[in-house]
């Protein structure tokens, strides 16, 4: 089984290749990064794979599973480009260069129990912006609160999720099989999919949390409150509530996929699915750090209870991710232990982007090398944590 994390700017784009029945190659794509990632990273990787497989013009490269972890632009935009290219090929009666068997994706409409597309129509960007005082006011508020995601970006993603569902229907791609219901972890009943010779076990989002979200949405609709009050709640809650968290388990090893979920939610889901005993620990071969390594999503207990051979942090320094404080927590949680940390860009690139992002005024805290520099951290690790290996650049792990 091969795990790849492509360079996806400030988002995620993960490609998993594994064995299937009769030695067939099975591919799973998790997220597609923000705009430009499909063109610059994912499409070239598809072309390389086509060449390696010696596919002719009439044979598409098949993704058995495409999973969009949650409704956010830095995860869904590249998948929209992937599907749009397939749609364009159909409209022009050309062979598809790639194809998808089924899609795992929780749209906002599905999460709140509405008909597909209804929220996007009733909760338009312009209406929300008016309620929030306009785009400039929203961006200033986000900078003042040091928010990782503005309500604007999250709300824009709702319509993207609806568009993806429509594209999947037009392309005849099975979505959330077998019945298109929301993918979630009900109490002691984790949803399990077969992916080649592996199993994909859903541990999040928690069904009970989705019920709470639906109650909140129903209450807002019933009272017709100002968009600002709901937007503030959604901005804080929806990326975490909607993130599909899953354990992919194959004969070769295991991978924990976390989306942008909070660490406490991930731990609760692992306990509910039976992967983790209350107060106990669990080991996986690969852990994709939640939310690109943001310190807002993890604490010391998260790393003490989930151990991995390989930790992967996607991010280029935008929003300060991967966050140095997160990596310091990881080292603190596993003193004297051997593991490998993978970052998708070099430490120098991450530091440069973080510094420029802070200088742009989008972050209320100025960049401080002693607090934020990954280059500085990795230098200290050479003496303080010599058993930690650091790999920088596009990630390629073979289990």
Task: Write up what this structure looks like.
By secondary structure, this protein is α/β, with parallel strands linked by helices. It has one domain (2-398): Ribonuclease Z/Hydroxyacylglutathione hydrolase-like (Metallo-beta-lactamase, Chain A, 4-Layer Sandwich), CATH 3.60.15. The chain contains 15 helices and 17 strands. The chain has helices at 37-53, 73-91, 108-112, 118-122, 125-132, 135-144, 151-170, 207-223, 227-242, 263-273, 300-305, 324-333, 347-362, 369-372, 374-384, and strands at residues 2-5, 14-19, 25-30, 61-68, 98-105, 174-175, 185-186, 189-190, 192-195, 198-204, 245-250, 253-257, 282-288, 306-313, 339-343, 388-392, 395-398. It has an eight-stranded mixed sheet with strand order 9-10-11-12-13-14-15-16. A seven-stranded mixed sheet has the order 6-5-4-3-2-1-17. Strand 7 and strand 8 form a beta hairpin. The longest helix has 20 residues, at 151-170. The protein is globular and about 60 Å long. The model is unreliable at 125-135 and 141-151 (pLDDT under 50).
Q: Report the sheet-strand fraction.
A: 15-25%
Number of separate domains: 1
Query: How would you sum up the global shape?
Result: globular
The assigned structural class equals alpha/beta
Distance between the termini: 5 Å
Q: Pick out the low-confidence regions.
A: 125-135, 141-151
Strand order of the largest sheet: 9-10-11-12-13-14-15-16
SS elements, strand count = 17
Helix content: 40-55%
Main sheet record: 8 strands, mixed
If you consult CATH, what is the topology? Metallo-beta-lactamase, Chain A
Provide the CATH superfamily.
Ribonuclease Z/Hydroxyacylglutathione hydrolase-like
CATH class: Alpha Beta
Radius of gyration: 21 Å
Corresponding CATH architecture: 4-Layer Sandwich
The average pLDDT score comes to 86
Give the number of helices.
15
């Amino acid at each position: 089984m091969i795990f790849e994390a492509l360079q996806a700017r400030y988002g995620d784009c993960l490609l998993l290749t594994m064995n299937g029945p009769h030695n067939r190659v099975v591919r799973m794509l998790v997220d597609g990064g923000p705009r430009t990632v499909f063109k610059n990273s994912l499409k070239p990787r598809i072309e390389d794979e086509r060449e390696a497989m010696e596919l002719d013009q009439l044979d598409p490269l098949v993704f058995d599973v495409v999973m969009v972890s949650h409704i956010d632009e830095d995860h869904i935009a590249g998948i929209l480009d992937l599907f749009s290219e397939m749609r364009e090929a159909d409209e022009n009666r050309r062979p598809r260069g790639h194809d998808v068997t089924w899609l795992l994706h929780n749209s906002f409409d599905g999460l709140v129990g509405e008909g597909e597309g209804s929220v996007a129509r009733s909760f338009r960007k312009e209406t929300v912006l008016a309620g929030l005082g306009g785009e400039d006011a929203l961006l200033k508020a986000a900078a003042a609160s040091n928010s990782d995601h503005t309500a604007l970006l999250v709300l824009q993603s709702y319509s993207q999720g609806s568009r993806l569902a429509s594209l999947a229907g037009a392309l005849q791609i099975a979505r959330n099989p077998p019945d298109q219901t929301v993918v979630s972890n009900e109490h002691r009943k984790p949803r399990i999919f077969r992916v080649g010779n592996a199993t994909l076990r859903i541990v999040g989002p928690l069904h009970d949390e989705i019920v709470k979200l639906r109650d909140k949405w129903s209450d807002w609709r019933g009272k017709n409150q100002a968009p600002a009050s709901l937007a503030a709640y959604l901005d804080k809650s929806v990326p975490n509530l909607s993130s599909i968290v899953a354990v992919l388990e194959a004969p070769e090893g295991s991978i924990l996929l976390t989306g942008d979920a909070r660490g406490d939610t991930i731990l609760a889901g692992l306990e509910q699915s039976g992967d983790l005993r209350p107060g106990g620990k669990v080991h996986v071969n690969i852990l994709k750090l939640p939310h690109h390594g943001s310190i807002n999503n993890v604490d010391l207990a998260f790393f003490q209870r989930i151990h991995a051979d390989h930790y992967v942090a996607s991010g280029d320094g935008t929003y300060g991710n991967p966050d140095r404080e997160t990596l310091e927590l990881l080292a603190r949680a596993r003193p004297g232990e051997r593991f490998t940390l993978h970052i998708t860009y070099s430490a120098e690139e991450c530091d440069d982007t973080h510094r420029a992002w802070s200088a742009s005024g989008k972050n209320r805290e100025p960049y401080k090398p002693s607090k934020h520099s990954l280059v500085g951290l990795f230098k200290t690790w050479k003496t303080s944590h010599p058993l930690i290996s650091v790999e920088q650049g596009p990630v390629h792990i073979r289990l």
